[in-house]
Amino acid sequence: MTPIRDISRVAVVGAGIMGSGIAQLAATAGYDVALCDAAPQQLERAREGISASIEKLVGKGRLAAERGDQALSRLRLCTTLDDAAADADLVVEAVVEALQVKQAVLAEAAAAAKPDAVLATNTSQLSITSIASAVGDGATRVVGLHFFNPAVLMRLVEVVRGLQTSDDVVVAACRFATSLGKETVVCRKDSPGFLTSRISAIVRLECLRMLEEGVGTAEDIDRALRLGLNFPIGPLELGDRNGLDTYLRVLESLSETLGERFRPTVGLRNLVAAGRLGRKSGRGIYEYGDDGEIQSPSRS
Ligand SMILES: NC(=O)c1ccc[n+]([C@@H]2O[C@H](COP(=O)([O-])OP(=O)(O)OC[C@H]3O[C@@H](n4cnc5c(N)ncnc54)[C@H](O)[C@@H]3O)[C@@H](O)[C@H]2O)c1
Fold this sequence. Notes:
alpha/beta; 2 domains
């Protein structure tokens, strides 16, 4: 039987949309969690977001108030990766979707964490094997742990095996995800976009092409896919939620690895260049109010 590693201390690197959700999940499940970010204002934002999310879950009766308080007390915010990853059994990186940044973060994490710590990346589509190349012999401990947005609510975690990932690390990653109340699938081959992002990227890209060709409004394209094709949320709205800057990076990378069909549209590049990154910046394909709800289509 493959040994299963013990995990009790978790470090999450990157306190953006995904890192804050993953930290909240892990703290709620009973892990000691250290969350760090290079930008101090992101840490403050994450603290507020996590508190508000826990309060909402408690209010809806989906989380006992006592468990919510305990989760917050298990969460430590850190300004340096060294501090966050010290003695961690598992490090989950959720920094910007850029290979070199992720490689640097994993190399630093490998030096700070326990020598046998699992080193996980929340990349949406980058090669786990390439990210792992930054940690030399430690590559056997690197695994993809791909959460979905919003991490607290989405049911799936996709576990991705790199070329050198050891069996016990894949098992530990699955067990960790299960302990957070998630279902898992294992992407057995390190292939760009794994089992999920490859599909969602191409569907959203086709929606963007239709929008830019003037075939329909953003609202109607999203409504068509929700009501006619049974998508739970329109792909354009989801793109705004996930962050158009992240989506652009995903497409740039997938077009390099999987080919021309993933080439980003000019319209998407323009939105990102204009700082219209989606819900997190108050404006993307749609416009958002202070409550984070769509106000009106913001097409120009
Ligand atoms: N947004 C999504 O829907 C989604 C879904 C699944 C996976 N992902 C993946 O998760 C990762 C993070 O995405 P996100 O949407 O949370 O991005 P984000 O832009 O919301 O957050 C990224 C955070 O990383 C921080 N950061 C950047 N470099 C850093 C470094 N060297 N050290 C510490 N912190 C650093 C930034 O300050 C920022 O707070 C990406 O790899 C993305 O592809 C995103």
